[in-house]
User: Which sequence fits this backbone?
């Protein structure tokens, strides 16, 4: 099983005809993608004690994850990501006054101990409370020999005004086992730094070009089938959820190049198909549908 920890929020799509709300947040998107890809996933997060928080809890329950723990926090607000689409590409503006998303409770629920992998979203790193929480969690998980995964998922609107972004992220990166990064984000840290990381599975999403993986001296670039995207929101999350669903149960050192090529080909297909419909979660297809797409 894979447990996802981090932001669950409202993706509010802004168009000339008004606004519509959808369930979102990168780690929750990943949890949904794991489930839809045939895997087992659980989620831990937090929402405000408000109407939008209840909306998210109700929507999350419909996905029937293995476990869901999302308390509603009095005195905090459910975070909103206002999403604007231009030719299928999205941009974000966050509404996060007294946001609940980074006030996640510690210690963790007991079902975490059943996990082979625990994955963290990154938005919590913008606040001291979130940084303290993730460091406590990683220390605990390492004591239980549970693999730790992390998605850089840098959002300038969340981290604006902070001068030590690289140090904040590197502090976590040095501790984890699996790293998800995009081609846009790799420029923040530099290829030399990212590719020098040892004993970590690096998963690099390259958009329409596919993806790349690296584990010590083993690496590969895996192309993807071309599609005409309608909405790229959540495509990287869908891709990474598919990767995690396929490596659940393996130790990283057990994976070989043939396996990783196959895993990333499948994950590319999941990510590509997600762009054909609006929304990060509603667009997810089944494992069987993805296999048909990549093999036809």
Assistant:
């Amino acid at each position: 099983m894979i447990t996802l920890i981090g932001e669950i929020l409202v993706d509010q799509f802004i168009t000339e005809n008004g606004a519509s709300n959808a369930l979102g947040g990168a780690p929750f998107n990943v949890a949904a993608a794991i489930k839809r890809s045939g895997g087992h996933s659980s989620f831990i997060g937090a929402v405000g004690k408000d109407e939008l928080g209840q909306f998210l809890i109700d929507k999350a329950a419909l996905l029937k994850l293995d476990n869901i723990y999302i308390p509603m926090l009095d005195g905090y607000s459910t975070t909103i990501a206002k999403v604007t689409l231009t030719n299928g590409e999205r941009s974000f503006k966050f509404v996060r006054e007294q946001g609940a998303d980074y006030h996640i409770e510690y210690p963790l629920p007991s079902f975490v101990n059943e996990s082979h992998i625990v994955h963290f979203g990154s938005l919590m790193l913008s606040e001291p409370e979130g940084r303290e929480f993730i460091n406590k969690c990683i220390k605990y998980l390492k004591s239980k020999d549970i693999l730790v995964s992390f998605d850089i998922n840098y959002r300038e609107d969340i981290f604006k005004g902070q001068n030590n972004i690289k140090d904040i992220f590197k502090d976590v990166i040095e501790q984890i086992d699996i790293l998800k990064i995009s081609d846009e984000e790799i420029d923040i840290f530099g290829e030399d730094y990212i590719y020098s990381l040892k004993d970590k599975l690096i998963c690099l999403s390259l958009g329409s070009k596919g993806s790349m993986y690296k584990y010590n001296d083993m690496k590969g670039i895996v192309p993807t089938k071309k599609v005409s995207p309608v909405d790229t929101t959540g495509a990287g999350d869908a891709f990474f959820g598919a990767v995690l669903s396929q490596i659940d149960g393996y130790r990283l050192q057990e994976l070989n190049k043939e396996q990783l090529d196959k895993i990333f080909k499948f994950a590319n297909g999941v990510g590509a198909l997600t762009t054909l419909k609006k929304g990060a979660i509603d667009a997810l297809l089944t494992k069987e549908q993805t296999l048909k797409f990549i093999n036809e």
